[in-house]
Amino acid sequence: MISQATLPQVLIIDDHSAVRAGIAQALLSANMFCCGQAASYSEALAQMARTNPDAIVVDLNLPDGSGLDLIRWIRQRSEDTAIVMLTMSDNDSDLIAAMNSGASGFVRKSSPLPELISVLTRAIDSPKSFTASGVVNALKTLSVKELLTQREVEVLRALSLVGDIATLAKNMNISSSTFKSHTSSIYRKLEAPNRASAIKIARESGII
């Protein structure tokens, strides 16, 4: 029997108690997770301060704030926390917004629970990656410039120049760690495995 102490701690954040209970039951039944619950943005902050969960499952709309804002808040403080957005929304723009905010995955509430478990498992294994059904089609609707922030576009252009990370970062008056953080975000958004692939995508899109 697996000890609960060794299982990933998941915090489920949704203002509907039935939704929270259903998700918690599904995750507990899989014998792969331990679950906590929060009904709002403020309650989630209090829970995270107490329990420091390994993963977050959060709704897009909360009664006292935005799930996207909460994702950004978490990601600014931790690159290792798995974050999955779970929402009723069918809009590709919300999927992209979740990815740009730093989410590790995106699942629609209309999806079967095994999909949530699969995405959550991948997110815990690789919180800096992004997993979502339909993400390829969503990305196709956006240009690379729309997908990246202005700063990421500048970093992507810098990557096309000759030089190591330290030199490129110095030329942009930012630290190497900040440059690397932007680079990781670019690779994730463009689904580029390396610098050469990202540069190729940038050239094909007319950025450089």
Automatic annotation (TrEMBL):
UniProt cross-references to InterPro entries, sorted A to Z: CheY-like_superfamily, NreC/VraR/RcsB-like_REC, Sig_transdc_resp-reg_C-effctor, Sig_transdc_resp-reg_receiver, Tscrpt_reg_LuxR_C, WalR-like
Pfam family of the protein (one): Response_reg
GO annotation, biological process: phosphorelay signal transduction system; regulation of DNA-templated transcription
Gene3D superfamilies xref list: 3.40.50.2300
Keywords: DNA-binding, Phosphoprotein
Keyword Phosphoprotein: yes
Domain HTH luxR-type: 141-206
PANTHER family: TWO-COMPONENT RESPONSE REGULATOR
High-level lineage: unclassified sequences, metagenomes, ecological metagenomes
Domain Response regulatory residue range list: 9-124
Protein's name according to its UniProt entry: Unannotated protein
Gene Ontology molecular function: DNA binding
Keyword Mitochondrion appears in the UniProt entry: no
